[in-house]
Amino acid sequence: MACVLIVNDQPLQRLGLRMLLAAEPDLTVVGDTADAAEAIRLSAELRPDVVLMGGRGPRHEDVETIRRIARPSRLAAVGGSATAAGPPPRVLVLTSTADQGYAYAALRAGAGGFLLEDATSDELIAAVRVVAVGDAAITPRLTRALIDTVRHDRTPRPAERAVGADAFTQRERDVLAAVASGWSNAEIAARLSIAPTTVKSHVSHILAKIGARARVQAVSFAYEYGLVHPAA
Q1: What is the pLDDT of residues 163-184, one digit of tens each?
Q2: What percent of the chain has pLDDT over 90?
Q3: Which pTM value belongs to this model?
């Protein structure tokens, strides 16, 4: 059973999402709110598996809310309150925009999924289930755009972690390069002559080593830290 907290500043959307998700036997809605600060508090208190975020449109404060929900341990350094029991909730963003900059910022902040509001109810339910178990759910037409954005962004950023190429096995570097090229697990398995389950295991290990929760964050890491270089 996956528990979901709904964060949406539109009352009718909150009601519709609650009814949709509550109708699924393996999903339960533990609460809903329109307020970002309340969402952060409820996330820490209720410990949902997934926080489904949506509303009027992307705002800077949305990214900060995602960061504080998905990475609560960071609050400890500034006197905030974060519970240590279990992993933090995973955030699935439901938005009306396909803006690459917002999606990229949301994923870097710790979002585990990014879905457009024109998704079908079945797609939304499937995305909630995928994010709940720790996988990434990103609308297909946005995935390639995000990879291209990272690939062509050559601006160096200060390193946040002491992780480099030597932190990965050769096979993990091969898989990371393939992920950064936009290959699916099935394509990676075929090209590297390994089982799809082995690919999934490698991807999980890579994400754990770099402290990421979404596949696109691994793409970002690969390009930003020089493990993969942009194509000419």
Answers
A1: 666 788 999 989 988 887 777 7
A2: 38
A3: 0.69
Q: Are 66 and 36 in contact (CB under 8 A)?
A: no
**CB-based contact 34:11 (threshold 8 Å):** yes
- Whether 26 and 78 share a structural domain: yes
Same domain? 57 vs 129 = yes
pLDDT of residue 218: 78
What is the maximal distance between C-alpha atoms in the chain?
A: 51
What is the reported pLDDT for 74? 47
- Return the ∠ at Cα 105 (arms to 164 and 14), rounded to 5°: 135
Return the DSSP state at 162: S
Both 196 and 114 in one domain: the answer is no
Count of structural domains within the chain: 2
Find the mean pLDDT for residues 191-212.
Answer: 89
CB 182 within 8 A of CB 147: yes
CATH number at residue 12: 3.40.50.2300
Residues 34 and 14 sit within 8 Å (Cβ to Cβ):
yes
Same domain, 174 and 133: no
Looking at the structure, tell me whether residues 119 and 59 fall in a common domain. yes
Range of the domain at 203: 161-224
Asked if residue 16 is part of any domain, the answer here is yes
Residues 6 or more apart whose Cβ sits within 8 Å of residue 153:
223, 224
d(CA 120, CA 93): 15
Contact 93, 138 (CB under 8 A): no
Contact present, 215 and 188 (Cβ < 8 Å): no
Same domain? For 31 and 98 the reply is yes
Q: State the pLDDT at residue 49.
A: 96
Helices (H), 57-169: 60-70, 100-109, 121-132, 140-152
